[in-house]
Amino acid sequence: MAQSYIQVSGDKADQAGRHLTSSKAFVPGDLIVSFSNPLIALPDSPHLLQVCSNCLSLPHVASDPSVQGRLALPSASDPGMQLPNSKLVKACTGCGKLSYCSKACQRADWKRIHKAECKVFSRVGKEQEGKTLPTPVRAALQVMLRWTEMKDLFEGLEGHVKAFQGDGKPYADITVQALAVTEYAQLAGKDGWGVDWWAEVVKGVLCKIQTNAFHRLDLDFGQDGIFLDPTLAMVNHSCVPNAFVYFMGRNACLKAERPIEKGEEVTISYIDYTHPKYYRLENLKSYHFVCSCPRCSGNLDSYEVCKSGPSIQLNSLSLQPDISKYKSPPSSKVVSKTSITNIHRNFHAGVSPDDTGATPMSYLSTHWKACKPLVDAKLYATQPLPQIFSETVSQCSSATRYAHALCIAAFQATMVEPYLYPHPFAQSRLKTCLAIAKLLVNIVFDESDRPGAWYNKDVPFHYRLRSTFKTDIDPILLTQAMLIVVAHYGEMAHDPQWNVAIEARGILKQFEGREDREQLTTGLLEWERDPQGQTGKGIFDFMIGKPLGLLSSFAMEVMEYELGKNFPQPSPEIH
Ligand SMILES: C[S@@+](CC[C@H](N)C(=O)[O-])C[C@H]1O[C@@H](n2cnc3c(N)ncnc32)[C@H](O)[C@@H]1O
């Protein structure tokens, strides 16, 4: 760990155990500290042959992003996506179970752990007809194969072993996994201890991995993995966190999401904090504590938390620059918290469309209708509505109804996400900007390939939407503006090598040399220099605010058309 401005405070016996404290003030977007030497960092089992087991670089994908072809949304597991540092990976010739992107990576992993692990994998592979071990078993195996070096570090970690023992199914899984690790690592008789003794040790290790490891979940690529660093593991949870963690290869970085004072506790959210309280509590159950953050103790919703958020001022440089909207959001008192919980519970308890044979759209339609009280009260940032908007954007986009997807995405960017994530560099907000840019490009090409492809004269709002496109929106200018916003905030959201920012810069490059690009850059620079000044505000409004506002004004009609079934069904007609 380089020069660090965090320290571990408190005691394991304290109510919330130890925690991280900052020894310096940080502003939102600042890197607090990075961790490059984790105890465990491995890809999940389903991706072992695509992800390098040393540097964890993502699978190689051949095609470059290009405005010459259709661009998929960044949220899909998208084979057209260019990934940073992506390289081809080759399987280990010894066990054939995992892979590396270079000889150097193979050597480093061999020295660190794979020399011992390779023998186990080869043996288990033969016994288990080539099956790959589950991710937690591989993680615990790595610990047990290096037990002499790991013992002290692991002993210091919180494991909630007693609480896990009362958990039923999760503990039954841990027990089975522990027996497997004990067997595979051939622990019986080691240091004079028998199988049962070692199985108890491994159970403790598995509980500690569950409590302290991060899931390196990359939703964009469906890639998961485990990362455990003993200092990062000391960061406690809050549903109103002041920091967040992101991963780059074997590195984890802790960044400020809100202003952090010198001496203040640094917290992150272990879960998605945009959901209602009952759901957050359920998701925190495996950590064995009851959260008492302001969101939980006051049972506040996203609007209430956002209102007093210290980051809202930063939004003058964002797609929702009107700070007064954050301060006086729609009243959440109109729909009772119990009704919201019930709507949410039904959405999440609902059997997935895959199980019922229902199409994703009919599933979304059922829940969109159930959300009517939220829509009527304009509580668009109340879950599950944001999830329904996102999924509808994906569905419309896959069905090449780009204009519909665009209107909903514009609505998300201006009316939903700013309240969920009040910091303007939130990764979700920037991904939506990139999605808007890509949809615009797709529409431009869709229109030139097949004029009026999405247009249906029987759909009342289509005529108005088409006129808006013709007279009020310059799609190329708006695309570039969206990409500039992503490039501008990319480094605060993540790292210069963040795939979303790289992709935005890659697409922007294709517009270089255009006259409007120069105008736009000058204009946006003015806005960046003085966002509250008349010129900056005017330029922003002309280039981004007005066109996005116009597009998002169609969102409710689009949602009704797609999910409310009050309009003729999508069957675009060439006009
Ligand atoms: C990753 S560890 C964090 C470090 C931990 N406090 C320790 O001393 O080892 C996660 C555990 O910390 C505790 N914890 C984290 N956030 C908490 C909070 N907001 N309130 C109470 N306990 C918390 C819980 O015991 C949880 O299982």
Automatic annotation (TrEMBL):
GO molecular function, a single term: zinc ion binding
InterPro entries, A to Z: H3K4_H4K5_MeTrfase, SET_dom, SET_dom_sf, Znf_MYND
GO cellular component: nucleus
One Pfam assignment: SET
PROSITE patterns: SET, ZF_MYND_2
Domain SET residue range list: 177-271
Protein's recorded name: Suppressor of anucleate metulae protein B
Origin species: Zalerion maritima
